[in-house]
Amino acid sequence: MLIRPLQTLLLACSLLGASAHAAYPEKPIRLIVPWAAGGSTDAIARAVAQRMSETMGQPIVVDNRSGASGRIGTEATAKSLPDGYTIGIVELPHAIAPAVFVKMPYDLLKDFSPISMLGTSPLMLFVNSSQYKNGDIKGFLKNGRSSTEPLAMAHSGNGSISHLSGELFAGATHVKINPIPYRGSAPALTDVAASQVSGHFSTLASGASLLGAGKISALMVTGSSRFAGLPDVPTASEAGIAGMQFNQWWALVAPATTPIEIVQRLNKEAMAALAHPATRERLTTLGIELKGSSPNELRTFMRSEVEHWGNVVRKAGVIPE
Fold first, then answer.
1. What pTM value is reported for the model?
2. Do residues 221 and 202 lie in contact, with contact meaning Cβ atoms separated by under 8 Å?
3. 196 CB contacts (<8 Å, ≥6 apart)?
4. How many angstroms separate the CA atoms of 186 and 40, rounded?
5. Domains (ranges, CATH) in the chain?
6. Residues 6 or more apart from 107 whose CB is under 8 A from it?
7. Which residues in 252-288 are b (16+ Cβ under 10 Å) and which e?
8. What digits encode the pLDDT tens for the residues 1-45?
């Protein structure tokens, strides 16, 4: 039986489309990190990107686009072509943002194709080491309560988890604070080390180098358990600070409508990168617990986080701007 010309054309197009997807990726992939270089998000992005580059046969180039509490870089991801050549990292602050900002340039639940969860990490309260030793949260609280001036607390921008952590901390401890915005944890911690600000809530990954150099100290950790590498640092619960049992999280996403075949390929590669011993060794020493997921699991998780943190923001009395 002869195939008609139209059928021939359709068959050729179909085969061409299949081969195009099979060939992915054919050029470098851009991974947008919505914070300054040197922070925890940058660390996990570079570790995962390095391994994925090796297995996918194309460079995955990390593009740091900080500003506007992570919204600038994330908007760039959302508005990129959904062809698999631009992906991005979203995290806990992106679930907080809808309750903090009246106008958002993207919708976390509608404008992205979830790829995979990457990991979680508790936050720590970092201060200048010349004033406090690791774990001296009692001393910090005593001085904070007796101070006639609010404590200058650095954060990574309005709506960031470090910002909300400071507000929750102030409410739970009755310590008055003056929130000071920065473009990310790296510059914020630099000023903590220089005694320009009193403290900053961040992950161990962001503070590891300054902590190792003896320039900053860790006073407390969010989450349900102490970090094995810093056994003298109590949890917030152990320090009598309620409402601060939570973890930072990171996830890999692509622009909405990215072809499912590409999303599945990226999910497979991300999961393999997270399981690789070199990646695990590099990140677990920074207090990051690597966790992968299916795209659907990530979508469900992000939806629950938006709902949960919206309630937390409203209870904390944070006024949307």
1. 0.83
2. no
3. 152
4. 9
5. 28-120+248-316 (3.40.190.150), 122-221 (3.40.190.10)
6. 98
7. bbbbeebbeebbebbbbbbbebbebeebbebbeebbb
8. 444 555 555 555 555 544 445 589 999 999 999 988 888 899 999
